[in-house]
Amino acid sequence: MSKTVKIAIAGEGGQGVQAIAKILTEAAYGEGKEVLYIPNFGVEQRGGVSVAFVQISPEKISALKFQKADTVIALSARAVRRTMQYVDENSIFIYDSSIEGVAEEVAELQNTAKKVLSIPALQIVSEELHPRVFNMLIMGAVIGATKVVSLDGAYAALEHNLGAKFQKDPSLRDMNRNAIQRGYDLIEL
Amino acid sequence: MKKPIEKETRAYMTGNEVVAWAALAAQADIMYGYPITPQNEIMHYWTRLAPQFEREFLQTEDEASAGFTTLGGVMAGRRSFTGTSGPGHMIMQEAMCMAEMMRLPLVSIIQQRGGPSTATVIYSQQESTLACYGGNGEGFRVVYSTCNHQELFDYTIKAFNTAWKHFFPVFVLGDGYQAKMREPVTLYDPEARGVQMIPTKPLLGLPGTPGVDRDPAQLRNTYNTEEELFAVVEDLRKAYEEIVPQVAEYQTYDCDDCEYLIIAHGVVTRTAQEAVKNLRAKGIKAGHFRPVTLRPLAADALLPIACRAKKILVAESALGQVKRMITDGIYGCTTPIETLYKPGEGIYTEEIEAKVLAMAKGE
């Protein structure tokens, strides 16, 4: 019934989960969509699981929380365990292939989710790009999986957030854009 | 003074940032505060914005001090406000009660976090009792419970006018979700929409000789006899009761023919209204009543709707704090009341729907 796209992104504090959600939702807002983004973390300064709950819709968004997401992205073993609850038969679950010790969870997800995708995000940024753009590659993957915003919209939001840094070092702009494009291309549904 | 918002602007920001802009738009002169999550960024944004518009900020040594310095600002005739949350909200109650006793137009923004005690920094509706009836006061307060960023903006502005019009402490009761989440909001200059900010005035240090040129400005919170105190509290009660019809606010959603009445406030409003829509699509005549002011409660408006309904569901992210105010407010109504309590946790649309469906089946 609802045309609202629901996305949960989770990782370790410091992996840039909240930055992904902020830039992604700014991109959607910039394209005239209704957006709602709630960050979720505990009292710890670092070392906790950080979750971003995102809703993007052509219509006004009502309820703040959702039980099941259309797309769930988990970037650590703890994040996989934490976000399994948001998966049902309509969900796409994406996790990084480098995550260890979640074989059981992934097997269970393969039964519950519509699709489970393992992507070599960490490997790609380490070998081809730069570890700093890990989260932008993940954002590209989220956009690839959901098509909630255009890549141009994402680039505009990126500019809004990091424009000052790009002015100092224009190569950062290309690196971030490449990461988004690479992430986007990783998703084949 | 330069206007912070020249023309209406659509923006995408956190609730704390919305509050800072609203206080600027409301011509607030100064914020007093002490850091606590999830209220911190009200202070952060205010300290960033205030100097650009000749406004001020004072960080105090704790919340007791933040509350009392805000009262000092108010007594000096400055449009003053503070913001806090959870344990800080508790510590600030002494100043809030003094505002009740001395009729001081204190404005506080509360971003509720989980409780009891330190608990979580995330979200709850567990500070309703505290905001409405905290400390050793008698609840001579106005408490607006907001449900989205637009209301955070509108009611922060309104809080200053309610306070300076009626001279009772006024609370904007948000929560950690509203504080930290981002959603679109329209920022505007209240005067451009025909809302005049009520002028402030000093309550102490007035010109002339007290007793000769003017009456003395006696702001008291200490009394010697029981009889004297009783008379003072009676005067407060009467003054408060007089303003109830002017300040009590509520919202109804599909209540005209509703058989299953969902009562929810704050952000749970959004969940309740979505549930009503979904239940109506399934042929269940559901409706939603929302107290916008938790204090004073619009009990006169609620009573007939509650009495007409077959069953009532009170849903809140607390263990019945607002439900107790509801049952007190609609005393005499015999409609059975069921509850959905999730202290410190958000409520899903599906949970309200399932509960009402079960109620409709007589389970």
Question: What can you see in these coordinates?
Answer:
The complex is a heterodimer of chains A (189) and B (363). Chain A is 45% helix and 20% strand. With 189 residues, chain A is α/β, with parallel strands linked by helices. In chain A, helix 2 links the parallel strand 4 and strand 5. Chain B has 363 residues and is α/β, with parallel strands linked by helices. Chain B folds into two domains: 185 residues, Thiamin diphosphate (ThDP)-binding fold, Pyr/PP domains (Rossmann fold), CATH 3.40.50; 111 residues, Rossmann fold (3-Layer(aba) Sandwich), CATH 3.40.50.920. In chain B, 40% of the residues lie in helices and 19% in strands. Chain B has a seven-stranded mixed β-sheet, sandwiched between helices. Classes of the chains: A alpha/beta (189), B alpha/beta (363). At the A-B interface, helix 1 and strand 2 of A face strand 8 and helix 10 of B.
Give the oligomeric state of the chains in this entry, treating copies of one chain as homo and distinct chains as hetero. Answer: heterodimer
Q: In the CATH hierarchy, what is the class of chain A?
A: Alpha Beta
The poorly predicted ranges of chain A are none
- From the spread of the alpha carbons, the general shape of chain B counts as globular
Q: Please, how many domains of chain A?
A: 1
- Average per-residue pLDDT of chain B, rounded, comes to 97
What strand line-up does the widest sheet of chain B have? 3-2-4-5-7-6-12
Instruction: Indicate the low-confidence ranges of chain B by residue numbers.
Output: none
- Rounded Rg of chain A: 16 Å
Element pattern of chain A in H and E: EHEEEHEHEHHHH
Structural class of chain B: alpha/beta
Q: Could you say what the CATH topology of chain A is called?
A: Pyruvate-ferredoxin Oxidoreductase, domain 3
Mean pLDDT reading of chain A: 94
**CATH fold-type name of the largest domain in chain B:** Rossmann fold
